[in-house]
C-alpha cells in the first residue's frame, strides 16, 4: 500500500517561474491537505479539501492554488515563485469516517526558489 | 483559539536513559492531542493520540503520554531511549472543528548520544 505519494522530491525554481507539486493517495481518503514546513516553525496549512470538487484556504494560502478533480489527487500550484516560498511541502490525507482520524503524510517536496 | 507550546527546541539524552518531551496547550474546547514523529527526509508519522478516553495513552515504539487537564500538558515519555528514536517530534492540538482545526507545535529535536 503506497499511502500518500508526492512528486518531485526536490526542485529548484527561479523567481517568477511556476510549477505544480503533485500529490496522490490510494487510501480513498476524502480529506486532503497541503502544509509547508519552515525550520523551527512547525507546519502551516496552505489549503485543504474535504472531497472532490471542494477546496478551502488554510492559514497561509497566498501565492498558491489547488484543485481536487478526483478523490486521489490534490495538486498544489505555485504561480510566480518567490524566495519566501522556499520550504518543504507536505501533502497529507485523512479519513473523516474515523474518530479523530490521524493524518497520513507523504515524504515531502523540498523546494528552493532563487 | 487554540495553541500549543513545545517547551524545548532540542533535547539530548544518552541511549538507554529516559526521554521526556514537554508540550503545553491551550484550547477553548475539550481538545484532542497528538504526538507525531518525523525522521530525516520523511513525512510525519502518528505516535499516539488522546481523544478524551484514558488520560495515559500508549503509542508505538514504547512511547506514552499523559493528558493532565489541570496542568494543560501532554508530555511525551519513553523509559529507555534508542538510537532510532533520534528525530523531530511534534505536539498537535485539535479542536475537533473540522479539517482545518489542527495546530502544530514548533517541534522538538531529539538527539540520542551513544
Description:
The complex is a heterodimer of chains A (114) and B (114). By secondary structure, chain A is mainly β. Chain A is 0% helix and 49% strand. Chain A contains no helices and eleven strands. Chain A has strands at 4-7, 10-13, 19-25, 31-37, 43-51, 54-57, 64-66, 76-78, 87-94, 104-105, 109-113. In chain A, strands 2, 4, 5, 6, 9, 10 and 11 form a seven-stranded mixed beta sheet that branches. In chain A, β4 and β5 (43-51) form a beta hairpin. Chain A is globular, with a radius of gyration of 13 Å. The model of chain A has no long low-confidence stretch (mean pLDDT 93). Chain B is mostly beta strands and 114 residues long. Chain B has strands at residues 3-6, 10-14, 19-21, 23-26, 32-38, 44-50, 56-58, 64-68, 73-78, 87-94, 102-104, 108-113. In chain B, strands 2, 5, 6, 10, 11 and 12 form a six-stranded mixed beta sheet that branches. A four-stranded antiparallel beta sheet of chain B has the order 3-9-8-7, with no helix packed on it. In chain B, strands 1-4 form a two-stranded antiparallel sheet. Chain B is globular, with a radius of gyration of 14 Å. The termini of chain B are far apart. The chains are: A mainly beta (114), B mainly beta (114). The interface between A and B is medium-sized, with 27 and 22 residues.
Characterize this entry briefly.
The complex is a heterodimer of chains A (114) and B (114). Chain A has strands spanning 4-7, 10-13, 19-25, 31-37, 43-51, 54-57, 64-66, 76-78, 87-94, 104-105, 109-113.
End-to-end span of chain A in angstroms?
Answer: 36 Å
Helix content of chain A: under 10%
Distance between the termini of chain B: 41 Å
The poorly predicted ranges of chain A are none
Beta-strand residue percentage of chain B: over 45%
Shape by Cα distribution of chain A: globular
Largest interface: A-B, 27 and 22 residues
- The averaged pLDDT of chain A comes out at 93
What is the ordering of alpha helices and beta strands of chain A? EEEEEEEEEEE
> What's the helical proportion of residues of chain B?
under 10%
The helix tally of chain B amounts to 0
The main pleated sheet of chain A reads as:
7 strands, mixed
Radius of gyration of chain B: 14 Å
Summing up helix and strand content along with how strands pair, one would put the structural category of chain A as mainly beta
- Please identify the structural class of chain B as seen in this structure: mainly beta
Oligomer type: heterodimer
How confident overall, as mean pLDDT of chain B? 92
Q: What can be said about the biggest beta sheet of chain B?
A: 6 strands, mixed
Query: Could you give the count of β-strands of chain B?
Result: 12
